[in-house]
Amino acid sequence: KQEVTQIPAALSVPEGENLVLNCSFTDSAIYNLQWFRQDPGKGLTSLLLIQSSQREQTSGRLNASLDKSSGRSTLYIAASQPGDSATYLCAARTGGFKTIFGAGTRLFVKA
Amino acid sequence: EAGVAQSPRYKIIEKRQSVAFWCNPISGHATLYWYQQILGQGPKLLIQFQNNGVVDDSQLPKDRFSAERLKGVDSTLKIQPAKLEDSAVYLCASSAPQGAPPETQYFGPGTRLLVL
Q1: How many CB contacts within 8 angstroms connect chain A with chain B?
Q2: What is the residue-level pLDDT of chain B in tens, covering all 116 positions?
Q3: With 0-12 CB in 10 A as exposed, 13-18 as middle and 19+ as buried, what is B116?
Q4: Which of A34, A89, A98 is closest, CB to CB, to B56?
Q5: Do A98 and B104 touch (CB under 8 A)?
């Protein structure tokens, strides 16, 4: 049974800092891995999707990597801004197209 | 392009009452998902539709929850009777044009349910 864990559960950093959010999954047989952002009281916004055959994806200040063999993905945020404050969720998609989410990392970027 | 629409946005009911949520996915998306997100947790998949058919409902509490997707477009999720532990945000998502494998999921704003 696939389980997804995100560490840390919460993170507070000063503005301008580069940071890494971690996501681990127990079953390496995934179809893809997706990172989402969730603002309070809102739905989820897709940030990056990495296919199982890919190693990383980049969008602006965000870079997500995937290492299936070790069951890990990281989301790198460069030059963090107060507007980046949100909860970041990773989700692993299994071969049966079931999506398993982690509990998320709550990020607070201080101005 | 219009996003995923959900209604109502908020609902407060008493336990043992029934409630229904509605979702309109992005036009042309064949796959529709309902998730339950309890405060402080990640979303948990309740049911996944591919067009009209159910792909996965293994985590749907079928004694009280039901869902349908008539004509492969809109969907409704119903809870009857509601319990206190059903208090959560119910998220609807959709993905993939017809004939394409499910990829990026697009989420609606969610319905916040409070059961008293």
Answers
A1: 51
A2: 679 999 999 999 999 999 999 999 999 898 999 999 999 899 999 999 988 899 899 999 999 999 999 888 999 999 999 999 999 999 999 987 666 565 788 999 999 999 99
A3: exposed
A4: A98
A5: no
